[in-house]
Each structure stands twice: as structure tokens, then as C-alpha cells.
DNA sequence: TGAATAAAGTTTCGATGCGAAACTTTGAGT
DNA sequence: ACTCAAAGTTTCGCATCGAAACTTTATTCA
């Protein structure tokens, strides 16, 4: 019981520091933390997940709020919006070079990256596993989407070295697509 | 290298989920995440750390912004402000019963507490240690205050079962004070 | 086929966050 | 006594944020 309270405090501090550093980084570009979150997401999501609705789920905000944040990024020249050819209700978002640069420079924040690179791979491996199970636990409890990498999804079927099959969309896709975030990402099993 | 990227992603998700749940919890009281952070802090800080300036450092915001957030909490009846008798520039903040209740109910967020109670103490022990070292690493790198518990401070000298001595203020204090957050908290050593 | 319904996004409203900078009051140092 | 620093407050301008009303386009189902 004692550990749990301490861990809550630690995560609270990490969460606040994380956000403060992101805020500081965005300030020089006139951006708020939520904008950097959007740039970060668009820089890593796959082609099924680049819509305002997906961004809304990622942020956990309302669609009205998300719409305005995206509009701001568009007017600042960091994001481009393009209408879907088949479903005219849908828009696809992509980063401009300037937007991609800001995302790459600031997300994740420098101090976090620096702190982690000071650790060896064997040191961080158990941490990764524990954070993973904690995250899965919270996501299922709050029934929020997992936004995991495509290749870790239950619908991802490896075919060979250069391609895989997505059981959800029924498409053959090149392997490097598997490294991207998918809004439809589904956990392989709830209890393992 | 691979683990580090993944851990960054995991912390990003945890951070966002954390904040979203806090936002949701605060919404029913008309409070923003930052207000719950303040209530959380005031509920756990010691008597040297209950000032607007300390809250400012905890939040990592400017003093103007912090001042307005505190004023709002005051008008809503969750916080009381009282001028220091010796230094009239300083004000001391305390929670009303309503404020204390909201803090206790919502911080840390329910899903996080629930996820952690599903784990045994032996499971979470290594996680705690790793998060601690990660946090210390980031705090020293960004030269931000640690806001740790009094009893983990280098100036905390245990005397007996009911009291300790604070080398910083030169005061004898009851043991239970050691469980509170201190703005002057100083890490015992940087490399151990 | 046609009407109801749902889904994706936008717009408007009002309260507030947020940084920056100017300001007041009070204490500390020389 | 004079200067400087520290703690807080106030004002300004822009943006977030949720809620709710709205438009446009798809889908469902009768």
C-alpha cells in the first residue's frame, strides 16, 4: 500500500514536469502543450489515423476544441488538411516540413530523452514492461483507446520481411507501416 | 535505444491519460486540472511550503498565473488565505473541508489508484525505484525543485520516535511532519 | 427509393489559463 | 537612509476548453 501512494506521487511529478517542459518548448513557437501533442501524434500515426476524429481521441478532448487547435496549427503553417476522396466528411492531416521539425525537436522533451539515454538497455527493460502493464490496466479501466504501434496489434499478421496483412482493413501493407501509431490498435489479450 | 523510445511513448500516454482523468474529475466542480494540482499540493505540504510562491514552483507556472488560480479557488471556497504575522509579504494557504474533500477524492485519479492496488507490493517496488531515479535525473537536469517528502531530505535528522530535527530551519518537529511535502526538499546525494 | 439517423467537422459562447510586464507592499543589506 | 530584492496582484491579449447548435455527407432501414 505504501509503494502505491509513492508511485502515484512520482507519476504526478513526472506528468507535471513532462508537461512543463513541453510548454516551455512550445512557447518559443507560440504553441501550447496540446499543439505539440498533435504534432507528435501526426508525426507518428498511420494513414488510417490522420483525421481530426483520431486526434480528438488521442487528446481526449471534445471535437470542437480539437477542431480549433488543428485550425490554429494550419494557419501557422505546421499542418495541412486535405479532404478524403471517397468520404467527403473526412479530412486527412499531414505535417509540413516546419511542423515535422518542431515535433522531432521537442517530442519527447529533451530532458526525458537525456535521462533515458544515460541508462543502459538492460536497465530500462523492466521499467518498460511495468509501465506497459500499468498503461494497459488504466486504458481498459477507463475504456480509452490504446494508440499502440500497428505491429503490436492483434490484427497484425506478418507475411514476410517486407509486408504484413491487416486483418481489420483487409489490406497488405509494407512492413514499415507497422512502426506507426494506429487509432484502431487493439491489444492482443487482456490477461497474459 | 529502442526501449528508450518506447518508454517515452509510454510516459507520454500515461501523462495524457493522467491529465484527462483529472480534467474529467474537476469538471463536475467547475475546476481545471491546475486547480486539482493545487488542492493536491496544499493537502500534502508542510507549513514551510503553503505559500503562493511554493505553489508557483510546484506548478512550474508564473506567479501571475498562479495568483489567479489561487484566487479562483478562494472565491469558490476551497482555499483560505492568511497573511503571515512576521513577514507581511507572505501569505499562507490552507484547504477548507470542501477543498480537502475534493483533493482526497480525486488526487491521484481513481483509475491510477485502482491499477496500482491490483499489483502486490513486491511487484511495484522495482517500479518505484526506477521512477524515482528517472525523476531525480530529470529534476537535476532541469534544475527544478524536487518537492519530496520531508523525511527523505538530507536535512532531516531523526531524534526519537516522536520528533526529528530540521537542519535547515533549526527546529525540532513532530515525526508526522516528516510525511509532508517540503518546498526546500534537498536530495540526499546526487550519485548513490 | 426515400426518410430517419448517424457520423465528421465547424462555429459560437462564456469562463478561464497562461505568459509578460507593470505595479504595490514589505523586508534585507549596506 | 537608500537601494535592491522578494512576494503577490493586476492588466492585457491570445488561446484552451466544454457544451451545444449547426452543416454536410453517409448509412441504415423500412
TrEMBL record, chains A, B:
Sequence ranges assigned to domain HTH marR-type in this UniProt record: 4-136
GO terms for biological process, alphabetical: response to stress
GO cellular component term of the entry, any: cytoplasm
InterPro entries on file: HTH_MarR-typ, MarR/SlyA-like, WH-like_DNA-bd_sf, WH_DNA-bd_dom, WH_DNA-bd_sf
GO molecular function: DNA-binding transcription factor activity
Pfam families on file: HTH_34
Compartments where located: Cytoplasm
Entries under Gene3D superfamilies matching the protein: Winged helix-like DNA-binding domain superfamily/Winged helix DNA-binding domain
Protein name: Winged helix-turn-helix transcriptional regulator
Organism: Shewanella salipaludis
